[in-house]
Amino acid sequence: MATFKDFRNKVKPNWCPGCGDFSVQAAIQRAAGNVGLEPDDLAVISGIGCSGRISGYINSYGFHGVHGRVLPIAQGVKMANRDLTVIASGGDGDGFAIGMGHTVHAIRRNIDITYIVMDNQIYGLTKGQTSPRSDVGFKTKSTPGGSVESALNVMEMALTAGATFVAQSFSSDLKELTALIEQGIAHKGFSLINVFSPCVTFNKVNTYDWFKENITKLADVENYDPANRMTAMQTLMEHNGLVTGLIYQNKEQPSYQELISGYDEQPLASQDLQLDEAKFNEMMAEFM
């Protein structure tokens, strides 16, 4: 049986020392081993940005996509091979700016994949510009006078869009993050896990210390019920979205694969797709 060590490869990450993405990588590897996966059971699909490199740092199937398109690729992989555990990953710019349309529709589609967003509230790869997750007044190279736009409340957005699994964690809490990824993998539907992953090079506001001072762990909230969507929304609003843990889960809603008509139990990837000449001629005759 594989352990987290089997999901390591010899590629050394080139993230800045102290980057929160190191913990996200470790949590994915630990979660994959803990739930009993083998490296060839897992596909990690990544987007653009510093976090987009993560698919090359994990010993599994991997694909490094283009700007904002991680979710169409990840959904296609899952549809072609339903036996694979598919994890999509990217940053807040990739998922909540250019890729936001795909994020919303993946949520409502409820396809059985796990989407992990490394949220550092800044564009790190391009050397520090404002992202959709930057607060009002946030000063960067693109907003030297301070951002005048409100930060996107992504967890509230996910609940509004009908997400069936919504969670949030902090990269310095490896134990909680690993457990949430395990739960996301087990969930039969679309799982969104947003991770506060500080950029130590360009974001001097949303630091590790800042998050430790401002985050509320849902495990410490008395009588919190992640099955209650209204409670989840109210709690997010009360804490300005700065909560960690399982925010909401709907175990009753069927996944996309369970609803689509004619979706073969045998993965497309393992089917014989060769056509004999007679069948080919029969199909071509339909267009003559």
Please give the count of helices: 10
Tell me about the largest β-sheet: 8 strands, mixed
Question: What's the order of the H and E elements?
Answer: HEEHEHHEEEHEHEHEHEHH
CATH class, named Alpha Beta
Quantity of strands, as a count: 10
CATH architecture: 3-Layer(aba) Sandwich
Biggest sheet strand line-up: 2-1-3-4-8-7-10-9
Radius of gyration: 20 Å
Regions with little confidence, pLDDT below 50 for 5+ residues:
none
Question: How would you summarize what this structure contains?
Answer:
With 288 residues, the chain is α/β, with parallel strands linked by helices. The protein contains ten helices and ten strands. It has helices at residues 21-34, 70-80, 92-98, 100-109, 154-161, 174-186, 208-214, 229-238, 256-259, 277-285, and strands at residues 42-46, 61-64, 85-91, 114-119, 122-123, 129-130, 165-170, 191-196, 216-217, 243-249.
Structure write-up:
The chain is an alpha/beta fold and about 290 residues long. About 30% of the residues lie in helices and about 15% in strands. It has a single domain, classed as 3-Layer(aba) Sandwich (Rossmann fold), CATH 3.40.50.970. It has 10 helices and 10 strands. Strands 2-1-3-4-8-7-10-9 form an 8-stranded mixed beta sheet, sandwiched between helices. A two-stranded antiparallel ribbon has the order 5-6. Helix 1 packs across helix 6 and helix 3 (about 90-100) crosses helix 4.
